[in-house]
Amino acid sequence: MTEPLRAIALFGGTFDPVHFGHLRMALELREALHFDEMRLLPSHQPRHRQSPGVSSAHRRQMLALAIGDCAELTLDDRELRRGGDTYTVDTLEELRAELGESLSISFCMGLDSLLTLPRWHRWQRLLDLAHLVVVARPGWQLPSQGEVAELISSRSAPPSDLRRLPAGRILLREQTPLPISATAVRQLIARGQSPRFLLPDAVLEYIEDNGLYRTAAASDR
Ligand SMILES: Nc1ncnc2c1ncn2[C@@H]1O[C@H](COP(=O)(O)OP(=O)(O)OP(=O)(O)O)[C@@H](O)[C@H]1O
Ligand SMILES: O=C(O)c1ccc[n+]([C@@H]2O[C@H](COP(=O)([O-])O)[C@@H](O)[C@H]2O)c1
Questions:
Q1: Most buried one in 37, 104, 155, 209, CB count within 10 A?
Q2: What is the mean pLDDT of the chain?
């Protein structure tokens, strides 16, 4: 039998701000799929949505506080350092150049993100570079037809493929559903209500100390 590949996972997001939906998803995926690393990957300037409500530096700091001393999760801030518009395909090409062809890379996302895949920059290249691990998200359904449905039927694979192949498969997973969104967190703060228990206390403290998300403009992204 061949040795399993070393496998790293990336979990990309705007993290505006990071919340327990993100953190549980990342931790459960790392444990369930035995990734050697699970890197949280904040995007700098996503083109597909409005600019984040707060700066990259604040989002980076909130992630660092959220991860704290959790050894299972790490922060990869390459997209913030690269600056400019953020495209996942650029990040994956950079990582492939850095880490080589034989390592397995999985890009993790919620189902809402997968549904937008055909609008991502050079999306057809993504599966040459990485696997996609997709987690169900309350309120979102798998499509029954169209490009994403076809992609799922041609690329779906068992978990063992993530360590057997470097890229190219899609794994769909059901996990603890946590109906939390960063939009809801921002809206609560803008209305003067508490988002406590939706995100780590250290992140909430940082938001309060820095007066983040207090205006409707910052919350309505
Ligand atoms: N509660 C959740 N359960 C499962 N996946 C989630 C959850 N929240 C976010 N995700 C996934 O995490 C990734 C990054 O999400 P993002 O940072 O945009 O958070 P968000 O809560 O969706 O933010 P916003 O409300 O601002 O759109 C996306 O792939 C998204 O699908
Ligand atoms: O590369 C793209 O065109 C692209 C389009 C939409 C989303 N993404 C990535 O998908 C991840 C989740 O996006 P979001 O908007 O839910 O934070 C994040 O890492 C984004 O950079 C990437």
A1: 104
A2: 93
Convert the pLDDT of each residue in 25-54 to its tens digit.
Answer: 999 999 999 999 999 999 998 777 677 789
Pocket test for ligand 2, best of 94, 109, 126 (most atoms within 8 A of CB): 109
Task: Note whether ipTM > 0.95 here.
Answer: yes
Instruction: Return all residues near 111 (Cβ < 8 A) that are at least 6 apart.
Output: 134, 135, 136, 137, 140, 141, 142
Domains of the chain with CATH codes? 7-178 (3.40.50.620)
